[in-house]
Amino acid sequence: MENNTDDVYKAKRFFEIDFIKGFATIFMIIFHFFYLMYFMDIVKFEIKQGILHFMAKISHTIFILMVGVNSAISYNKFREKNKELYEKDYTSFKNQYIGKTAKRSLFLLLAGLTMTVLSYLGFGNLFVKFGIFHFVGVALLLAIPIVHNKFLALAVTLFIAIVHVLSNTSRMRAFFSSNCQNVPFICFITGVYNIKFSSLDHFSIIPYFALVSFGIFLGHLLYTDKKRKFLNKKEEEKFENYEKKNVVNNIGLMGKNSFIIYFFHFVLFYILLIGYKYQLKPKLDTFMAQNSVTEKMDTLEGSNLGENTPKVEN
C-alpha cells in the first residue's frame, strides 16, 4: 500500500486559523521589541502591565491555543489520508502518527535548545530554560494520547485547571516549597512551584497545556479534515472569498510561518539592539551632549551681547 503520510500537512488549510495567528504574530513582534529594550537596559518601558502586557498575553494565548486546534485538524487529516490503515491496522496507524509527531516535536526542541544557547550568551542567568519552543515540543508529545478525542481533551483541560488552582493554595504551596528543593527544575517545568529560576521566556506545562488540550477540543468541535462544521456549504463558499483579500492573505502568511518568524525576529532584534546600544547610542549621546553645550554657549554669548550693548537715551 502506498504511504501518503508525507504530504498530510499539505492538505487544505483553514485560512482563518493562519489569519488569527498572523495577528498574534504582529502583537508578538511589537511586544518583543520593547521587551528586549527593557532587558537590555536601553529604555525601561512598562512591560508588566498596560498595553504591552496585554499584547503579550493575547499573543501567547492564541499561539498555544492554536497548537491544540492544529493538532486536532492535523490528526483528522492524517486519519483521512490513511483511512485504510486506520481501519485495518490501528496499531500501525498510531505508530506512524507518533513517528510523524515525534519528528515535529524534535525539530521544535532543537529550536528551543538553540534559543537556550543564544539567550545564555546574550543574557546570562536569564537564559531561556523552558520557553515556547520547548513547551510546544513537549506539548505535542503529551497530546498524543488525547488528540483523537475531544471529550478526553476537554477532561484534561478541566483537570489541569483544577490542579493549577489547588497548587496555588497556601497549603499546597507550602508542600511544594519543601518538596521541590530536591527537584527544582522539574517543578519549574511542570509549573507547580518555582524556587530559584528566572528566565526571559517561560511556559510551564501547568497551566499552559490546558490551552493545548482545549484547543484540541475546539479543533474537533469546529473542523473536520476538510470543512468547517460551523458553516453550511453556501456560507462556507462565501466565507472562502475573504481569503482572496490581500490584507487577509498577507496576515495569514505571517500566521502560517509564525514559529519561523518567532525564532528569527527575536535574534534579529537582539543583534540590531546590541548594535544600537554599543555603537550608535554612544555616538548619539555624544552628539546630543555637544549640541547641548553649543546651545548653552550660544545662549551665554547672546546674554553677554545684550548686557554689553549701550543703551540709547532719548
Q: Into which percent range does the helicity of residues fall? A: over 70%
Helix and strand content put the structural class at mainly alpha
Termini gap:
113 Å
Oligomeric organization of the protein chains: single chain
**What best-fitting shape do the alpha-carbon axes yield?**
globular
Please describe the structure with a list of short key phrases separated by commas or semicolons.
single chain; 314 residues; mainly alpha
Structure explained in plain terms:
With 314 residues, this protein is an all-alpha fold. The protein has one domain (13-285). The protein has twelve helices and no strands. It has helices at 15-39, 50-81, 83-88, 90-123, 132-142, 150-167, 170-179, 184-190, 205-222, 233-240, 246-256, 258-308. The radius of gyration is 27 Å and the shape is globular. The termini are far apart. Mean pLDDT is 88; it is low at 1-10.
